[in-house]
Amino acid sequence: MKVAASSLRKGSVVDMDGKLYVVLSAENIHPGKGTPVTQLNMRRISDGVKVSERYRTTEQVERAFVDDRNHTFLYSDGDGYHFMNPESYDQLVATEDVIGDAAPYLQEGMTVILSTHNDVPIAIDLPRTVVLEIVDTEPSVKGQTASSSYKPAVLSNGVKTTVPPYITAGTKVVILTEDGSYVERAKE
Question: Which sequence ranges are marked TM in the entry (predicted)?
Fold first, then answer.
């Protein structure tokens, strides 16, 4: 199925010369002069080679047929990351290459959208936000207002982020899975 290059997003799968590529990042560039272009950074699914392509935004790209379904994350081990289809109870194992930056945010029992091609996992789409606990941060300074000053903190998954000064260790917070940034204090 042909689609405009500008409509591709992270996680989309394209077919170029009979090989499948997963889009790692897509950026639409609109120069002051000239034709707008779409910069795609992709990874070849078969061997993990990364490529970068530039298309005019109106160019058509062949999008591969991919099955996107909800799967429940079970656990990870030496073989990879194990997921279960809640409808058929079939289990799939995704490799480290497929999971990539999403690995720290996976929690047991979490529902994710797993993209498969011929029953092989090729991409993952996490929920937009996840609740994690702050395990380490600087103590708050008395009299410091809730201005735009943020302090460094370490989350329970080991990822470093920045939080407002009033957040202390042990507080549960909502984090964006896209970039690991603080959203708000979790409502319990």
Answer: none
Q: Token match 């008395």: residue?
A: 142
**Gap between the Cα atoms of 31 and 108, Å rounded:** 44
**Highest CATH level, class, for 67-125:** mainly beta
pTM over 0.70, yes/no: no
Short-list 184, 164, 165, CA closest to 173: 184
- Report residue 87 as tokens: 């409808």
List, for the chain, all residue ranges whose pLDDT scores fall below the cut of 50.
none
Domain at 129-185: CATH code: 2.40.50.140
pLDDT for position 83:
92
User: 67-125 with 129-185: one CATH topology?
Assistant: yes
Domain positions in the chain = 2-63, 67-125, 129-185
| Topology at the third CATH level for domain 2-63 | SH3 type barrels. (2.30.30)
d(CA 91, CA 61): 32
Tokens of 134: 């702050």
Rg, Å, the chain Cα set? 20
At 66-115, the pLDDT tens digits run 888 899 999 988 888 999 999 888 898 988 878 888 888 888 999 998 88
Cα dist. 30→27, 34, 56, 57 in Å? 10, 8, 10, 10
